[in-house]
Amino acid sequence: RVIGIDHSPVMVRQASQRLAGAIRLGRVSVRCMAVEEVPALGLTFDKIYSANVTQFFADPVATFQTLYGCLKPGGLIASTHQPRNKGASPKDTARAADKLSANLLAAGFKGLRREVLDLSPSPAICLIGGA
Predict the structure, then answer these.
(1) Of 94, 110, 130, 131, which is least surrounded by CB within 10 A?
(2) At what angle are helices 60-69 and 90-106 packed, to 10 degrees?
């Protein structure tokens, strides 16, 4: 079962339309909420994934600590980021990866693994860590 969240009603509406079949089957639910509200769901997760959102976290370490608390023992987090500003370069991606890695480690995640996908305008990175 997959639960998708976004703070934007527009994104929730778009995702709900795209995933209508899976939602009808009860395999997916989509909710409009802030990431900091995830504990209010009263659920624990095997895996948590985010894409291009960590730059919006007011306090990234605190937010990742919140998510850490929502993972089952042995659970995984994967967080992806692709710098998309004009003139973004592989160096921008490396800096973003270093910052994301530091935040995940400070939040308690272990065994971080870094994956890089060569995209344009800059590579995308994904940091994967365990609870």
Answers:
(1) 110
(2) 60
